[in-house]
Design brief:
The chain is built from 16 helices and 27 strands. It has 602 residues and is of the alpha/beta class.
């Protein structure tokens, strides 16, 4: 894997723009464009393939003539009815014949919903270079090593204030605040116009790492003239401002004071600032820290190596030494804030962890809020922890989490500074996008200049106008184990049926003359066989009658299976009002004469 500290292309420092008296630079820029408009006007297309009307799976491509750049490449965690699915990624069929046009993958920050899809993307488009800030590139590199991706991938580390120039585009990296360090906004320019992309953001004037959002540069860009603003809508329904991340550290300090129990803190592995505050509180209260969970170990390792986490080795405690250490001397840092079944916290709650268990001697702090759709799983985890006797502090029961996304007043400030001609809300469910659009209207933007998009919609922009000009193929691809897209709607329907009504297997053996063995019936998840002997016996007799009435030789296996399936499904529904998945299996036991005839034919 090729990693480059500086962008392997000209790096520019943005110049200040002065507005002439009585005219903003924004208006002047647009006036000049109109007066000198060429006959063949360049057009820019903004096409989101993920991140709209949903949380996660963020993926937006920007296309201008023969050049494409992609902003973020994330995953989405499966819905409750996606049985057995690990992750969901965008459908990339639109790009299949355009791989040679992709100039770069630009990543705003290192959360899974923005970088999780990169390994799967690179398997289709292996030669696309990746651009991001130092921590973001570090997390992506770790992920690619884990997936054993081709080491020829070129990684560009871009510093804030630098402009990455790729063919057809310039992309400036602007610092912002979020729940992970090194988050960036993008100011993108090409022949057709300019685009300001906020990524996930909030305005934190007292950030843990001291890196404040560059409001001055954003205001300067607004004076230069921005055609389109694409902005995060996650907290569009929340009024006011999002609190500073430092308030969580203050809460940790209060919670750690005079506690004689072991403290378990669960948070997102990528919440670097939150993790730093856990280490700070542990040091202040003379506790050792045990790190549990593969993703937590990996991210902490990367962040510490890149100096985004700062602590001494002597504060760490090996998990093997826990039994020899008093509970009041330990902080256990782990994952599992979303109730994920295989996470460390979940396994502890259900007594399935090999090395760790929860008792009445534990104080558990869940430092995160549930992602929409995970509320029930998180509530179940909290209940199970309490059943084990632990004290549990979670959002609503203590100030142990603040959002990484800005609320309405912060969104308004970005709109006021950028002064866009057009606006497209992104990153959120429909009600969030709609509320953000209404917020823009309340600030004086024309409704005709606001575009509520769906995944796959094409927003076409030039120096004269903007419009939704159609749509491209979009959808979802399921990741199940090592399989990418090999599980579709038919398989999921079967899994759903299996989960709801179970499975019934019929096995019979046939020879030249008909049935010689069976039919035998096996039930799983449908009825308890020992208590349903009469039902299964009647089903067996029905199958036997169907075979005897319809068997006319080996060439008829397929039609017999279909007949058995049809008749048995109808019979079982009449008797039980259930619809199990019926699977007939017919095996052949050919006579010696039939085998000799087959050999002669062969």
């Amino acid at each position: 894997m090729k990693t480059e500290k500086a962008v392997n292309s000209p790096v520019q420092t943005p110049k200040k723009t002065k507005a002439s008296p009585g005219q903003t630079a924004s208006n002047k820029s647009r006036t000049d464009k109109k007066n000198n408009s060429p006959k063949n006007v360049a057009k820019m297309k903004i096409i989101p393939l993920g991140g709209l009307e949903e949380i996660g799976k963020n993926f937006t491509l920007v296309e201008c003539e023969d050049d494409i750049i992609i902003i973020d490449c994330g995953i989405k965690f499966p819905d409750i009815d996606m049985f057995g699915i690990d992750y969901v990624i965008p459908d990339l069929s639109y790009l299949e014949d355009k791989g040679h046009k992709i100039r770069g993958l630009f990543i705003t920050h290192g959360h899974e919903d923005h970088i999780g899809g990169i390994p799967y993307f690179l398997k289709k488009f292996p030669n696309v270079p990746i651009y991001g800030t130092k921590l973001t590139i570090g997390l992506i590199t770790n992920k690619l090593v884990e997936h054993r991706i081709d080491k020829k991938t070129t990684m560009h580390t871009v510093s804030f204030g630098q402009i990455a120039n790729v063919r057809g585009f310039s992309v400036e990296f602007i610092p912002t605040n979020h729940s992970i360090a090194d988050s960036a906004m993008f100011y993108i320019k090409n022949k057709a116009g300019s685009l300001f992309f906020t990524g996930d953001f909030k305005i934190d004037l007292t950030p843990v790492d001291g890196q404040i959002i560059d409001l001055a540069r954003i205001g300067q860009i607004g004076l230069e003239g921005v055609d389109l603003l694409v902005s995060d809508s996650t907290n569009a329904t929340r009024k006011g401002y999002t609190q500073s991340e430092k308030t969580v550290g203050e809460s940790f300090d209060v919670l750690f004071t005079n506690v004689k129990k072991r403290i378990v803190v669960a948070t997102f592995a990528t919440s670097i600032h939150r993790i730093q505050q856990v280490f700070d509180a542990a040091k202040q209260h003379r506790r050792k820290v045990v790190i549990s969970g593969r993703s937590m170990v990996n991210v902490v390792g990367v962040a510490r190596e890149l100096k985004y986490l700062k602590f001494k080795d002597n504060i760490l405690l090996d998990i093997k030494d826990l039994p020899k250490t008093h509970p009041e001397q330990v902080v256990l840092l782990t994952t599992g804030t979303q109730g994920e079944p295989m996470s460390a916290l979940s396994r502890m709650a259900y007594g399935e962890h090999r090395q760790l268990s929860i008792t009445e001697k534990d104080l558990v702090i869940i430092s995160a809020s549930p992602i929409p759709g995970n509320e029930k799983s998180v509530a179940n985890i909290i209940s199970e922890l309490m059943k084990l006797g632990a004290d549990v502090v979670y959002q609503g029961a203590g100030q142990v989490h603040v959002s990484g996304h800005g609320c309405q007043e912060e969104m308004k400030l970005i709109h006021a500074l950028v002064k866009p001609k057009y606006f497209m809300p992104c990153h959120g469910e429909y009600h969030m996008l709609r509320t953000h659009a209404q917020l823009a209207e309340s600030m004086g933007m024309s409704k005709n200049n606001i575009f509520l998009m769906q995944n796959g919609d094409v927003l076409q922009l030039d120096t004269e106008s903007a419009k939704i000009s159609g749509s491209v193929p979009s959808g979802i691809v399921f990741i199940d184990g090592t399989g990418i897209g090999d599980v579709g709607t038919i398989v999921l329907k079967d899994r759903k049926r299996l989960s709801q009504d179970g499975l019934l297997i019929i096995v019979a053996t046939l020879d030249d003359h008909g049935l010689i063995s069976g039919p035998d019936i096996v039930s799983r998840g449908f009825v308890y066989m020992r208590e349903s002997e009469k039902l299964l016996s009647d089903a067996k007799n029905l199958c036997e009658r169907v075979i005897k009435m319809n068997y006319f030789g080996y060439s008829d296996y397929s039609s017999i299976k279909n007949t058995i399936k049809f008749e048995l499904e109808r019979f079982l529904y009449d008797r039980t009002r259930r619809k199990p998945l019926v699977l007939p299996i017919l095996m052949s036991a050919k006579s010696n004469l039939a085998k000799q005839i087959d050999r002669m034919r062969g």
